[in-house]
């Protein structure tokens, strides 16, 4: 396998989400979902990786790996456990964590919303109601006031399209709705939350005297292709690809990034067309082959991970180019990772993903591997492993995996040498 050098501008990091690693009995919608027996295994959010207590250990691991930037989220239900009541101890905890991160040479990138809502917000309808935009902005204001002197990089909302389609189109996420009208409304309201948060974060940090603020969303993007492009059904499948791509990501991107609301989404806040991002956050995992709109799957004989998702590295460049046409801004790969229980092909996955960025002429500034740690994988609990660091959930022992050591050397060399490729990747293969 060949070596390669990465573009000088590219920072290499890792990402996590608070609910998936912190543990604790926190009153949010996913803990409620667990209590209702809606998860696929018997594990609990109360355990996870115990990061709330072990955060120093985890930051020390990142520092030893040479991680340059860390994308993490703060938990809204910890910061505002009751409507309008803010927990100063939780805020102080996060502040200490961020300060330690910076002192360890790691640049923080703070995500404000990563799938979890405080239950009091969920009971108010969450993002179904335009009136709740003000409630979200109140929380945003407290976070920026508390951490704005430490953090310049913000992701307002993680994967609003996944949050919405999984939760409101019958895919098993809370609140378990299945209503296309709800999908339209929730994404429209969330777009308003992002636009107003983008403006508010810039305004607040500007008043603090900072000019380095960077705000965006992390949009989940998939590569879409027809299942049978050369068959008589290919024409219908091509049209279905266009519909799937438009509804799931392109129209969503236009609403959030440009304030340009096209069907099926609606401009509930009367937003003017503009640019409401400083970077394009791209979460990329897989390619889907489309038969009909909302009917897509991986091809039978394609490389796959433990989830059965197709591994298609070239798709990373494809989706970045698509998004850049919509909004020409610098790109941050805010998530890219793979589910691999035995760490048998994760190094190959990282090699392939970053090779795409090394070879493509794309304005990519950041790459965040998902995830730093094995973590609580939503509906699948502790049963799916994405981490560079293995978690023994019983003992909470951390062990850097072979892929974590590969990533450390990759960061150190800002690329891959042929010797590294031979040592780490020889013999690794994806599932078929």
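-> sequence recovered:
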């Amino acid at each position: 396998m060949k070596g390669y050098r990465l573009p000088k501008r590219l920072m290499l990091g890792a990402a996590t989400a608070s609910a998936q690693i912190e543990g604790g009995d926190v009153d949010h919608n996913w803990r409620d979902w667990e209590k209702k027996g809606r998860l696929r295994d018997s594990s609990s959010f109360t355990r996870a990786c115990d990061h709330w207590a072990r955060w120093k250990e985890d930051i020390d691991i990142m520092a030893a790996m040479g991680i340059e930037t860390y994308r993490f989220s703060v938990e809204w239900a910890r910061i505002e456990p009751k409507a309008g009541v803010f927990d100063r101890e939780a805020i102080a905890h996060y502040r200490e964590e961020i300060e330690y991160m910076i002192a360890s040479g790691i640049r923080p990138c703070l995500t404000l919303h990563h799938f979890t809502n405080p239950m009091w917000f969920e009971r108010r309808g969450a993002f179904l109601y335009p009136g709740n935009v003000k409630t979200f902005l109140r929380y945003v204001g407290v976070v920026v006031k508390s951490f704005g002197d430490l953090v310049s990089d913000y992701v307002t909302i993680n994967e609003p399209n996944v949050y919405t389609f999984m939760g409101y189109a019958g895919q098993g996420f809370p609140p378990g709705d299945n209503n296309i009208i709800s999908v339209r409304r929730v994404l429209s309201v969330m777009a308003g939350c992002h636009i107003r948060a983008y403006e508010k974060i810039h305004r607040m940090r500007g008043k603090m005297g900072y000019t380095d603020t960077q705000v965006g969303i992390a949009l989940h993007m998939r590569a879409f292709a027809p299942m049978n492009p050369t068959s008589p059904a290919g024409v219908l499948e091509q049209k279905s690809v266009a519909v799937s791509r438009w509804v799931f990501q392109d129209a969503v991107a236009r609403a959030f990034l440009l304030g340009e609301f096209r069907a099926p989404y609606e401009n509930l806040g009367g937003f003017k067309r503009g640019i409401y991002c400083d970077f394009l956050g791209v979460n990329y995992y897989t390619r889907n082959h489309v038969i009909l709109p909302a009917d897509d799957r991986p091809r039978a004989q394609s490389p796959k991970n433990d989830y059965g998702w197709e591994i298609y590295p070239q798709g990373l460049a494809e989706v970045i180019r698509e998004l850049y046409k919509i909004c020409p801004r610098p790109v941050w790969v805010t998530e890219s990772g793979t589910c691999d229980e035995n760490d048998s092909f994760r190094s190959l996955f990282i090699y392939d993903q970053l090779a795409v960025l090394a070879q493509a002429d794309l304005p990519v500034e950041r790459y965040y591997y998902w995830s730093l740690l094995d973590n609580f994988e939503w509906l699948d609990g502790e049963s799916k492993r994405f981490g560079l660091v293995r978690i023994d959930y019983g003992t909470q022992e951390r062990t850097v995996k072979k892929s974590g050591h590969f990533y450390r050397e990759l960061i150190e060399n800002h690329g891959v040498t042929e010797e590294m490729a031979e040592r780490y990747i020889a013999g690794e293969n994806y599932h078929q």
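The two ends are 20 Å apart (CA to CA).
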